[in-house]
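User: I'm putting together a teaching handout on how multi-component assemblies are represented. Below are the sequence lines for each component of a complex, exactly as they appear in our records. Could you produce the 3D structure of the whole assembly as structure tokens, so the students can see both representations side by side? Please keep the chain order the same as the input.
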Amino acid sequence: MSPIKSLIDRLGRGVIDFLAEMGGMGLLFFKATLFIFRPPYRFRNLFKQMESIGVGSIPVVLITAVFTGMVLALQSYTGFKRFNAEGLVGTVVALSMTRELGPVLTGLIVAGRAGAAIAAELGTMKVTEQVDALATLAVDPVQYLVTPRFVAGIVMLPVLTIFSDLIGIVGGYAVAVKVLGANAGVYLQRTTQYLELEDLLGGLVKAAVFGGIIAGVSCYKGFQAEGGAEGVGRATTGAVVVSEMLILISNYYVTAFLR
Amino acid sequence: MTDGIRSVVTPHTNGMIELRNVYKSFGNHHVLRGVNLTVAAGEGMVVIGGSGTGKSVILKHIIGLMQPDAGEVIIDGQNLADLSERDLFEFRKRFGMLFQGAALFDSLTVWENVAFGLKEHRFLAKDEMMEIARQKLTKVGLSGIEEKMPADLSGGMKKRVGLARAIAMNPKIILYDEPTTGLDPIMSDVINQLISEMNRDLAVTSVTITHDMKSAYSIANKIAMLYHGEILEVGTPEEIQNSDNPVIQQFIHGRSEGPIQID
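Assistant: Of course. Below is the structure of the complete assembly, with chains in the same order as your input.
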């Protein structure tokens, strides 16, 4: 095969694989959503997943948020001082955290932590035939395994984001007031003055979308795992990379849509 | 939809299996090339064949985990391709399957594994489910391990728990995927005896795939040899032993020299 032909061949195969993967994920999202409304409802599985995706992620999310809020205050103070706008640091921290950094950083962290765990667990179940075993016991693996994780992701990401927003703002306040010597009253007033409910809600909608992406993509990648430990490893890496990419891409479009 | 459900509920559940001209490929790899196999109700069929010849693929077609590229899979007169996805799950309640690696759910205890189908499909109290699980475990020669996790069990114990799970719902058809692979000779014999007992006592149809000839002879009413994606010959164990087909002779005697090419 000539080099050009082989290039086109490879390119074509890449496009087909990409479309097949997107199609497969779309179908899984669709099926997982259908099962939300169809009994039996698996509350035990759901609560277990809410705990592992949500509660388990609280420490990392909080640490990330507090330091992000702190550095945000520090950076914007340094910059804004150049045109005597230090007074707006509180506003910038509040808006950045609620609209953007809270949901996105939470999404990226949960993708790395819970997404990897989901893909590894389902991948292991797949290669050890536990997923097939579920089906032979007349239980739909999507209903049993995917839907609880999907719902847990959609519910818990906004909850984590509320924590993240709050603690980020507290971190910013601490640095601005305690380290940089800003006036506490003015800072707080500036934090709340320009902050609107829709900033907060928009961020939470984004977080819910990210939660669905993380759970859906990770379950899909887990189910695609083949061939033992190496396959599970590949599925896990794939789950984290693809969900983080999709979070960043969808972030722009959801923001543009909500604006 | 109603038709599908009605056909599922019809009490026509004697356990007859028919594969008609089944083809299956994975990419360029043509695994099944026109498999024809009939297993009568109550029969113990053993499918033999080399590793990687698609024996597992046959089992996965019988229970509807895979769909044929061409051909038909008919269980108790019902073509699986005519069932909706939901009805297919319902239909699987007449099956029990023992997986090669047992495939126990590692987040559940032994008794929860055995009672999984009961918990999902029957409205039973926990005590009743535990009692049934205990009975089924006793049937496979295990007791006192109800609360253990699968990770704490040996390979032979896992297989037996898997067998208890497979028979928990009183299936009409049991599928065994290489039941003795990876077990020591004594444990293999225990499993073979258990399978023979199940076939006899529970009056089930069974399909076992294996390349362990000792196991095949001890379980089978009939043996079918899968070769190059087709069923080469079907017969009673004696007929297979006395077959004049050189491929079958080479396989059942485990000779490296002969018509079967090793790549």
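A couple of points students might notice: Chain B has one domain: 2-253. The interface with chain A takes residues 60, 63, 65, 85, 89-90, 92-93, 95-97, 99-101, 103-106, 116-117, 120-121, 165, 169 of chain B (CB under 8 Å).
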